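Appendix B: complex inputs.
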Amino acid sequence: MKATDSLYRRLILWLLLPLLGLGALMLMQAYRSAHDAADRAFDRLLEAASLAIAEQVKWQDKQLWLDLPPAALEMLATDAEERVFYALYDNHGRFITGNADLPAVPGGADTLRFADTHWHGMTLRVGVRPARLDSWSQRERFEVRVAHTREGRDQLTWSLFTGSAGRIALMALLAIAVVLLAIRIALAPLTRLRRAIRHRDPRTLAPLDLPLPRELAELRETLNELLARMRRVRANQERFIGDASHQLRTPLAGLSARAELALRQPDPASWRSALETIQASSARTARLAVQLLSLTRLNNPEATPVTSMLDLVAVARNATRDAFAACHRAGIALELDAPDDAIPLTGIDWQLEEALNNLIDNARRYGARHITVRVQAAPPRLQVEDDGPGIPTERRRLMLRPFHRGAETGEGSGLGLAIVDSIARGHGARLTLDEGRHGPGLCVSMTFQGDRA
Amino acid sequence: MKLLLVEDDTLLAETLQDALGLAGYSVGCLADGNEARERLAGRHDFALILLDLNLPGCSGLEVLATLRGHDADTPVLILTARGAIEDRVRGLDLGADDYLAKPFALDELEARVRALLRRRHPSGAHLQVGPLAFDGLAQRFTLDDEPLNLPPREQRLLGCLMRHAGEPIDKAQLAGEAFATDSVGDNAIEVYVHRLRRRLAGRGVELRTIRGLGYLLTES
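Resulting structure:
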């Protein structure tokens, strides 16, 4: 989402833009009707003036003759100081008399017609009245043309327009105010929700509880579901930390007690035995701390390590080689049983190596004399088999839980198989615990879904 | 032989200094990342550097980068509490030679130090596996203090196996290290190994085949 994007701004944009468009249309309409009204009013004047002139036309000396009354023209000159023109034409369109040769207006022969026209650089409104001399002796047709410039009309148009524009502006302001108010009221629950979230104690995972309109209530429910999931995760973590702390405290207490006891005894032989115990116990505790860290990292949902194309055989060879020295010193035979060709797989190499290290380590700690790391191609599978005491069938599933140890007297931390299980699940692999091929012992297999490239 | 230990935990640093001192090395000790970087920025006479990654001042990886900027040879063994293999890969990419995750056994540390020094100084060093000894200066093997005369190729092969004593080494690696210039096939290596085995049989040194990993020279 862009930083400038806001619901408030969107609403304002989509409500006010059409409103502005509408306002502009209304202004145009107002101008047009002001213009028409002014034209109608002034056309009456043209009509009256032309009638007054037409009534004064007479037949004299075998031709049309006009004795123009001044009042006829005066009525056309308003205080806007228009220029006024008139002209008289006979039925052949010949100019008889007038103060300007005005252009003709096309149209019907018997009706009064008006038109806007340009004439000698001026905009004129021309009124044309066809008329007939109706006396007993003569039936002569003629045409009276009257025109004036538009100053008076424009003035009237403008004053009518400004009046209605003012009213429209007032209405627009009111509408904008109402829109802003409506948006603010409609978005108020959103603001409340935001405040409620912001004012929460960051440590609390209690559900949000505030009345909201339907659309936001759905959001609130979704948030509450997320919070509920987080509560479960945290409860899990708290239990894990509790277990971990217990697991670390117990051997530390043992170490401290053993050292204290040895210090009370004067016999150097008992010091030696105490030191040996202390060394073994501290090594175990340190290993537990390492395993706790790696389990925490594996189970961290925020971390998504990068997967890559790897060779299962190379992974197994690296892990076996790493573990070889320690096994060799302890007199345990460690072997790798792998095909010559690479077995490609998408995964995280250091995690798979860690899984194998844990399995080899487990086998070593639980009394194996012979450990075989096996790699198989179809389906891709990593296997660690030992000839130790094994695990009874009914206890195998329990072994995958953190802090569940096989033999209560054993010296393992109870995290090794939990780590392997996490890694297997992360790789979509199936983890199975079986008996060794030859009698007792344990054979742990990670079978991957065959995504051979 | 002078070693440098860069480690900020006093207890661990003192213990390692004592242990390596008892093993015959002279150990210089630094506790601060910046100090270590200054010390290693120019010429130095350490045969091997033990480097903690989590240091005050600047991180061990930065120290390593500074060192590798001008010195590609001195072996570096990384010691760190960051357990995962992920970090090891990063250290090795930056030019470290080996990696040891804390907690580690002193035995393991000493074995790695010996192996790194052996690998770095193949000639001129004295190597010993049980009763079998190699005098690098004279290029001569002795078994139970009697000279062991070998044909040149078997001699090179045994020298390579002795430098890697205690760790399995596969055929490809053997061929690369022992016969770098000649091209020697897998079958030829099997023949030489077979002959060496016969020579060493029953003399307290054993040349074992570790399935999947290669050959291992060890005391029997």
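The two ends of chain B are 29 Å apart (CA to CA).
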